[in-house]
Each structure stands twice: as structure tokens, then as C-alpha cells.
TrEMBL record:
Stated name of the protein: Reverse transcriptase domain-containing protein
InterPro entries per the UniProt record, alphabetical: RdDP_mobile_element, RT_dom
Domain Reverse transcriptase: 44-145
Pfam families reported for this sequence: RVT_1
């Protein structure tokens, strides 16, 4: 959609993005969201578990977030932050592929008479419960560039 805008508009937006990246900050006005509660049911009055809150943010914030996310991904990949076993939310890393590799490992261990222990943990609503300050400290200790860390923190 941005590609359809006049060059003067996109140049201005590009200038703003570059300024915020240089200043290592996320615009305060873009941190304000309008919440809409969606009913997961087709009919009837939902309970809290049967609703999905959606936050509506500034349109261009998504573009800026993609730029920041790309930088975070590049840093994480270059520094081998995410283990190979992590398959969710990574390109070309599908869960069925991971499941097949686990089955292959179990099969190999069975053939070699090696006991196998597997633990699967699924944290329900894990992203809703992230301790943000601990995450920032962890990213700092992992060596995330300070400018990028400041943007993530802001």
C-alpha cells in the first residue's frame, strides 16, 4: 500500500523512520492502541475465554515494526541466538518437519537400544506473560546492539 503513495509522502516517512532508528526510539504516539474485543463464538454471549482482544495501532507503525523486526532477526541469526530446535515463527522451519526429526531421533535411539526421554512444553498464552524487564536484561546479556535494544525497550 505504501508503494502506491506519492514519492514526497514515502520520502517523508522514510526520513521519519531513519530519524527514529538513529535516535533509537519508538514513537510515543504509536504506543497507544484502540482495543476491540471480538467474540470467538458465532452466537451468544461469550465468557472471557471466548473472546479475543485485538489492538488497533497506527498504520505506519507496522512498517516500522517490520524494519526493527528484520534487524532483530538478522542479529539473532548472526549470533546463533535461536537454537536450531526452535521451529515456531521461523521461515522454512515448519512444525511437521520438527516432529519428523524427533520421530527419526527416537527411531535411531530405539535401533541402538538407547533410552529416549522427550518433554513437550506448551505455555498457554506465553506471550501475554513475558516479564519485559527480564527480557531486556537477557537481550543485553546476549549482546544485542544497544541502539536496537533501546528501540525494543521503548
Amino acid at each position: 500500500m505504501i508503494k502506491l503513495l506519492p514519492p514526497t509522502y514515502t520520502e517523508g516517512l522514510n526520513s521519519c523512520f531513519n530519524t527514529w532508528l538513529r535516535e533509537c526510539r519508538y514513537p510515543d504516539g504509536w504506543k497507544i492502541a484502540k482495543f476491540v474485543i471480538l467474540n470467538k463464538l458465532k452466537a451468544g454471549t461469550p465468557t472471557c475465554d471466548q473472546t479475543r482482544p485485538i489492538s488497533l495501532l497506527a498504520t505506519h507503525s507496522k512498517s516500522f515494526e517490520k524494519i526493527v523486526l528484520e534487524r532483530v532477526k538478522n542479529w539473532a541469526d548472526a549470533n546463533h541466538i535461536i537454537p536450531d530446535e526452535q521451529s515456531d515463527f521461523r521461515p522454512n522451519c515448519l512444525l511437521p518437519t520438527r516432529v519428523l526429526s524427533i520421530f527419526q531421533e527416537v527411531e535411531n535411539n530405539f535401533a541402538a537400544n538407547i533410552p529416549t526421554l522427550a518433554i513437550y512444553v506448551d505455555y498457554q498464552k506465553a506471550y501475554d506473560n513475558v516479564w519485559h524487564m527480564a527480557l531486556i536484561v537477557k537481550l543485553f546479556r546476549l549482546g544485542m546492539p544497544l541502539g536496537l535494544l533501546k528501540i525494543v525497550h521503548s
